[in-house]
Amino acid sequence: MDVLFQTLVYGFATGGVIAVAAVGLTLSFGVTGFINFGYGELLTVAAYTTYVLTEAGLGLLPAAAAGTAITSAVAVGVARTCYQPLASRGPLPLLITSIGVAFVLQNLVRIGFGGEPRGFPAPTWTPWQLGGVFIPKLQTVIFLVAGVCMLGVHLLLRHTLLGRTMRAAASNEDLARLSGLDTRRIVLVTWVASSLIAGLGGVLLGASQGDITPSVGFEFLLLVFAAALLGGIGQPYGAMLGALLIGLGVEFGAAYVSANYNYALAFGVIVLVLLARPGGLFGRGGGNAVPSEGGTP
Amino acid sequence: MGVAKQPLLEVAELEAGYGDLRILRGVSLAVGRGERVLVFGPNGSGKSTLLKAISGILRPSAGSVRLAGSDVAGRPAHRIVRSGLSYVPQTGNIFPDLTVEENLEVGAATARRGYRERRDAAMDLFPTLAERRRQVAGTLSGGERQLVALGRALMLDPGVLLLDEPAAALSAAMAEQVFDHVLTVNRERGVAILLVEQNVLKALEIVQRGYLLETGTVRLAGPVGELRASEAVRGAYLGSSPDGPPTTP
Ligand SMILES: Nc1ncnc2c1ncn2[C@@H]1O[C@H](COP(=O)(O)OP(=O)(O)O)[C@@H](O)[C@H]1O
Ligand SMILES: [Mg+2]
C-alpha cells in the first residue's frame, strides 16, 4: 500500500517532468516541422546553469529562472547559427544537424564539468506523513509545478491571440501567411516559448533525479519522444497524457520490476505505437499532424 | 480618366514558376473595383500558379502586380494580404485544428480593430459559421469548410478576393450554393472577385469577364458574351462545338 502510493506520486512527478519537456518539444515541432534531437541538451544546459549559479551563491529559484533564460538564449543562438541557414532544405538536414548540435552541447558540458555526476541543488524536504503513508514532498511539488506549466501552456494556446496564431502557423503555415501573419516571427516566438519550457523541464529533471550528468537530457529525451509519440506528435494535449502514462510506467516498472528497464519500456512503447497507431493514441487516425512545409526560427 | 478609372488589381507581364520550371510566361490581366472576373483553362495551364504569384505565396520572377496603384510584386504574402487582397487556395484553405471562430480570429489577427463587427457580419452572411462557431474546422463538411475559408478571407476586409476552384470536389448542389455565396460576397460587400473555375459553363453565369489561360499565357480575354461566342471556348469548354464532339481540356 505504502509502496503503491509512493510509486504513484513518483510516477506523477516523473510524468510531469516528461510532460513539460514533451509539450515544449511538441510546440516547436508544430511550427518548425522537424524533430529536434538537440532538445534534450536544452534540459541539460538548464540543469547545469542552475547548478553553477547556486554554487556561485544564488538561491535555487533565482538560479533556476536565470538558468532557464540562459537556456532560451542558447536555443535562439543555435537556431540562428545552425538551423536557420538550412531552413529551405526540408526536415531531414535539420534533424541530422540537430543530432550534431546535441553532441556538441553535451560535450561542451562534459568539457566544463567532467562526466561524473553532480548533485543538483534540490531542496531536501522531508516527506509529509498522512496517517502512516509517506508522501514525498519534493515529488509532489514537481508534479504541481509541472501542472501549473501545463495550465499556462493551455491558457496560452487556447485563450490568447498569440497562442491561436501559433496553433494556426503549426496547422497551416501558408494559410497563416495568407492571413497576414509574419510566420517567421511566430516561429521565433514559439521557439523561445519552447526553450523556456525546456529550461523549466531541465530544472525539474535535475530536481527529480538528484544527480545530473552531461547526458542527463539526452537520455531523458527518449522518454520524451515516447510520450510525444504516444500522444500524437505535434499535439500538445496528447503529449501531456502520453507523458503521464510513460511516467507512471517508468516508476511502476522501477518499483515492481527493475529500474534497468526504463528505456526498454520507452522503446517498446515507441515501436508499438508506430506499428499500431502511427498518429498516436490521441492523434487523428492517419497521424498527419505534420505541417507540409518546415520553417525554422 | 485618372485614379478613379484605375483597376483595383492590375497584373502585367507576370512570370513565375517552380525552380527552373517556367509556368507563367507573361500574364496580364485586370480586375476593377467590385468586378467579377473568371480565369479558366486546361489543367496545368497555370491558373493556380497565377493566384499564388499574385498573392505572394510564390515569388514572381518578373512583371508587376499593382494593387490600388502600388506594385506589390515580390513582397511577402503576409504584407500583400494586408493591403486589401485575400486569397482562398484550392486546398489547405482552412486551419483544420482550429475552431470555426478561431479561424476567423486568426484571419483578423493583424487587424484587431473592428474584428467583432467583421466576424458578426461574416456570420450574418453565412449563418452556418455561427451555428458551428465552436466546432473544430477540420471536422466540417466540404461545403462548410468553404464557408470558413470565405469567412476567414473576409476578415481583413479585402477589396479583391482570389478564389481557386471553390466548388471543386463539392456536389452539384453544394457547388451551386458556394457560387451563390460568392455572388453574395460580391454584391453585398462590393468585394471584387477573381475566380478560377473548371466548370466554365456555370462560372460564366456569375462573372462579367474572363481570361482563357493556356500554357501560362492569356490566349483569349473578353466579356462573357464574347467568350460564349468564341469557337475556342465553345469547343473546349462549353461542350457545343459545331465541328465535332467536345474535347476534355
Ligand atoms: N509546387 C510545384 N512544384 C513544381 N511544379 C508545380 C508545382 N505546382 C504546380 N506545378 C506545375 O505547374 C503547372 C501549372 O500548375 P497549376 O498552376 O496548378 O495549374 P492549374 O491550376 O491551371 O491546373 C503544372 O504543370 C504543374 O505540374
Ligand atoms: Mg489549379
Describe the structure.
- The complex is a heterodimer of chains A (297) and B (249).
- Chain A is mostly helical and 297 residues long.
- Chain A is built from eleven helices and four strands; from the N terminus they run ααααβββααααβααα.
- Residues 285-296 of chain A have low confidence and may be disordered.
- With 249 residues, chain B is α/β, with parallel strands linked by helices.
- Chain B has a domain at 9-90 and 161-237: P-loop containing nucleotide triphosphate hydrolases (Rossmann fold, 3-Layer(aba) Sandwich).
- Chain B is 35% helix and 24% strand.
- Chain B has helices spanning 47-55, 77-80, 100-107, 115-125, 127-131, 142-154, 172-189, 200-206, 224-229, 231-236; strands at residues 9-18, 21-31, 36-40, 62-67, 70-71, 85-88, 160-164, 192-196, 209-214, 217-223.
- A six-stranded mixed beta sheet of chain B has the order 6-7-8-3-9-10, with helices on both faces. Chain B has a four-stranded antiparallel beta sheet with strand order 2-1-4-5, with helices on one face.
- In chain B, a hairpin with a 2-residue loop joins strand 9 (209-214) and strand 10 (217-223).
- In chain B, helix 3 runs parallel beside helix 6 (142-154) and helix 6 packs parallel to helix 7 (172-189).
- Residues 241-249 of chain B have low confidence and may be disordered.
- The interface between A and B is medium-sized, with 20 and 29 residues.
- Bound molecules: adenosine-5'-diphosphate and magnesium ion (MG).
CATH architecture of the domain at 9-90 and 161-237 in chain B: 3-Layer(aba) Sandwich
- Considering residues with a beta carbon less than 8 A from a beta carbon on another chain, report the largest interface and each chain's count: A-B, 20 and 29 residues
Number of strands of chain B: 10
Instruction: Supply Rg of chain A.
Output: 19 Å
- The name of the CATH topology of the domain at 9-90 and 161-237 in chain B is Rossmann fold
Q: Count up the helices of chain A.
A: 11
Strand order of the largest sheet of chain B: 6-7-8-3-9-10
Overall CATH class of the domain at 9-90 and 161-237 in chain B: Alpha Beta
Number of domains of chain A: 1
